[in-house]
Amino acid sequence: MSNLRTQSLQPLQPLSGGQLNNRVNNVTPIKQPVRRLKENVETIAPPPSNTAKPQQQKKKKEKLSALCKTPPSIVRTRNGRDYRRGNFLGEGGFARCFQMKDSSGQIYAAKTVAKASIKNEKTKTKLLSEIKIHKSLKHANIVNFIDCFEDDVNVYILLEICPNQSLMELLKTRKRVSEPEVRFFMVQIVGAIKYLHSRRVIHRDLKLGNIFFDPDMNLKIGDFGLATVLPSNSTRKYTICGTPNYIAPEVLGGKNTGHSFEVDVWAIGIMMYALLVGKPPFQAKDVQVIYERIKKTEYGFPEDKPISDSAKALIKDLLSLNPIHRPTIDEILSYEWFKGPFPEKTHELSLNGTPSGLDQISLAQSALNFNNTKTNAGIYTPKNRNPVEILRSDLHSEQPRAMLPQSLSPNDTKNKYEEVDPTSLGRPRKINLSSNYSTTLKRLNNICLETYQNMRRLQYSQHESIDVMELPRCENPTLISKWVDYSNKYGFSYQMNNDDIGVLFNDGNTLLKLHNSDRFLELIYHENEGWTCIENSSSHPPTQTRRQLEIVDFFAKYMNSNLSKVSENEERKETVFLRRYTRTPEYIMFEMTNGNFQFNFKDHHKICVSKNGLAITHISPSRAIQTHPLILILKQGNFPSEEVPECLEKIAVIKDAIKKKAFKET
């Protein structure tokens, strides 16, 4: 699996302190925020594996900041545009920020980096990568990139100015923020992160100090100094980076674990907790204590700072130790907490105090405000999912004395940075449909409709005498025993209880590797022939499927090492694929190619409906399995061998879920 971890470009890191040229144990130094911020909210310290001489490191960071000279009163660019320097706005670990005004009077923020601090190609590459990533982004809740240019002393990154400070300053003033306001903040943040992840960008430094208010009090995510692009042929990043209070546990694992998009989901949980409680959950004076608490997810909810149970439930899931157990970006907004009072917008008076009347917003108005905010944040808008691409020309200057290459300089910047067309990354693979192992599968909505109609009929006839036709032969069905949702990168991986392992890829096609066999099956959609199954040899696979086989093997190793089975092993009675799945906060629903529907509920009880809705199977948390005719369970109100909590309610949920699929699909 070595090629799964291949990285064509080092991830973008900030220029930082005394470790600018000397990295200990290959650890990227932690970025220092604006110095005026309080330590009880943003604690800055070296990474866990580098604890020596902290005072010396701090001094070096201060000296590096001092290299950022104040720009001249008039900054002249290569293309003839002049900017007049305005007020000093603040500074970070390696850059200072100033106001800049163009000839029309428009004011911007200019992140200013001293050329003297960029002493080698690696640090230059990091800066140029930050510029390329930020320049390629365009979203209502991301700070807008305007331009970049340089003079003999500095490199300037010109950005949209956000005059109402950040969430950090708001919390510093307010101490705690109300739940209705935080709901609004979270929707805007989730919208921006959803967009970033669709472009395969991981921010990696989400924190209150990097989220700013624009003139209309909308939130904007900024500072892409630690952002990185996850190439389609890579699985993880391994650099330890971030701000201590916000670092996800898998980041601290470095090369032993690696990290991906889930680190941004973790940071959302940290920010939500900090806003509602008043400080980050793992806050401590000693940064090593912070790291130990993070590794153990050791935090609590103070009784003197009460928050709702639904808020706690969301935070707990966002801060799951295992990144796979965290909700996906799409799942976050489906939590119960977002059904509470929801304001129409954020007002400037929120910077200094809690607005009145937030708890009096009606449910109907809150739902309307929630949907409008999601729409404005791009939650519903189909985004161009073409990824950000770092080109070699973006990282090499054409002029000996210049720091910025022409490709990152001004002049027609909007047209110069078109997103990558995914079709240019590789031709669609051609499928040989002449294999002797092929079958066309039924449409899923027809199976859903037939199953729903049978379940509905049995429910209404449960008080009548039992028809022998309603008593099918009830053998235990083939079940999904383990699963991993990696749909933000590859797809959904699963292992059947007969040990067949498959991946439902994001393009809808499936590869299933058969247990104790040299054969694997591909379930592929063909425009003329519908769903077709093709058999191939694992030892001599077609070139176009080798990558998919590697991904299946990768997931197989992970599941076998980390996950428990939900039922005992079964022999292969039939070959079954996962065709579709649906995740909600209460259950995950699996739709199988043999017409079975498996529901894994939140309380760890699993129920499978088979035989077109005539049979039902229960798998207990202890892996005990029982299968009976559905009509008998409906008459008795529960399973005979081991009772299922809220059995009839669960069956009703299953019926309604299948009904929605039956009438939604076309």
Largest sheet: 6 strands, antiparallel
Report the uncertain regions. Answer: 1-46, 50-61, 410-442
Helicity level, as a percent range? 25-40%
**What do the pLDDT scores average to?**
80
- The assigned structural class equals alpha+beta
CATH superfamily of the domain at 444-664: POLO box domain
Rg of Cα set: 28 Å
CATH class of the domain at 444-664 reads Alpha Beta
- The helix count comes to 15
Number of strands: 22
Provide the spatial order of strands within the biggest beta sheet: 1-2-3-4-6-5
Query: What proportion of the residues form beta strands (DSSP E)?
Result: 15-25%
- First and last CA, distance: 39 Å
CATH architecture verdict of the domain at 444-664:
2-Layer Sandwich
Domain Protein kinase: 83-338
EC number: 2.7.11.21
InterPro entries: Kinase-like_dom_sf, POLO_box_1, POLO_box_2, POLO_box_dom, POLO_box_dom_sf, Prot_kinase_dom, Protein_kinase_ATP_BS, Ser/Thr_kinase_AS
Family: Belongs to the protein kinase superfamily. Ser/Thr protein kinase family. CDC5/Polo subfamily.
Describe this entry's structure for a reader.
- The chain has 666 residues and is an alpha+beta fold.
- The chain has a domain at 444-664: Arylsulfatase, C-terminal domain.
- It is built from 15 helices and 22 strands.
- Helix 4 runs antiparallel to helix 6, helix 6 (262-277) runs antiparallel to helix 8 and helix 12 crosses helix 15.
- The longest helix has 20 residues, at 179-198.
- The model is unreliable at 1-46, 50-61 and 410-442 (pLDDT under 50).
- Keywords: ATP-binding, Kinase, Nucleotide-binding, Repeat, Serine/threonine-protein kinase, Transferase.
